[in-house]
Design goal:
The chain is mainly beta and 125 residues long. It has two domains: 81 residues, no CATH class; 43 residues, no CATH class. 10% of the residues lie in helices and 30% in strands. The longest helix is centred in the N-terminal third of the chain and has 12 residues.
Amino acid sequence: MAHFAKLNSDNVVLHVSVVDNWNITDGTGTEQESVGVTYLESIYGVEPGVTWKQTSYNGNMRKNYAGIGYTYDAKRDAFIPPKPYASWVLNKSTCQWKAPVSMPTDGKFYNWNEATTSWVESVTP
């Protein structure tokens, strides 16, 4: 199975569709993203400002599996999740958000406190 993200004109993921592999295979038996896009456009129609990009559960392409609300960054050819907190920074190699302070590794549970930009021990996991 292949997965495709439907993007709006701002490259924000609106929907993720599952497509059978045979619907992304060209006449030579090679899987092609463009064939999958053509298939999806035949199902949903061609919508102004909408594009489709293939995504992968295991991160083999475009860094991260696309989810609703993620943004596609064409420069990095990556799906980037929504920024969880204003203070967090983007790891440019993984395209994941990272806290400005590392979470303690003492085996306890922690929650991020944006007001203090620190990890606070949690009483429940």
